[in-house]
Design a protein that fits this description.
Blueprint: H1 2-14, H2 18-33, H3 49-62, H4 66-79, H5 85-101, H6 105-118, H7 125-138, H8 145-155
Helix pairs in contact: 1-2, 1-3, 2-3, 3-4, 3-5, 4-5, 5-6, 5-7, 6-7, 6-8, 7-8
């Protein structure tokens, strides 16, 4: 039920309905706090606190609340089991974009560099697309050393067909 409420929250966010989103997020958190149920299907094993955090981050990002989105994305990346490198890269890419859009270019570049490091282990067009968006947002900040380093390294990525 928690995951369903999060998906509903994402829908409300997509409709720019902050109140509806907040209500669904509160339900998602309440269901999550109840813990797993015997009735949960086996395929739900992926769903934990890190996933809850990143889906909430996506809601706030959709609503344009970048500081709140970044806070949840950072928590998601920190909570993720180190074994799941792709998820850490994905959550950190979300963090980089939220930081960039929230006017924190140096922190965004640092998070983006972490994602680029993880791309040696992970193949994901979704993550690459997210980094491309972050790069576009960071272009006006190219004069900052951290940002410039990130943009140059991102530009040197081999193109994937």
């Amino acid at each position: 039920m928690s995951l369903l409420a999060l998906r509903e929250a994402g829908g409300w966010a997509g409709l720019a309905d902050r109140a509806g989103c907040e209500q669904a997020l509160a339900r998602a958190q309440a269901y999550f706090e109840r813990g797993p149920s015997e009735a949960d299907p086996e395929w739900m094993s992926f769903y934990g606190e890190a996933e809850l955090e990143v889906l909430e981050a996506q809601c706030w990002s959709t609503l344009g609340d970048w500081p709140r989105a970044a806070r949840h994305a950072r928590r998601a990346a920190d909570l993720q089991d180190p074994h799941f490198t792709r998820n850490i890269a994905l959550y950190t890419a979300e963090l980089a974009d939220d930081l960039a859009r929230g006017g924190r270019p140096d922190e965004a570049a640092t998070a983006g560099m972490r994602v680029l490091d993880l791309l040696n282990e992970v193949q994901s067009s979704r993550i690459r697309t997210m980094l491309a968006g972050t790069s576009r947002v960071l272009l006006p900040h190219r004069r900052a050393a951290e940002v410039s380093t990130f943009l140059d390294r991102h530009a040197s990525l081999p193109r994937v067909m």
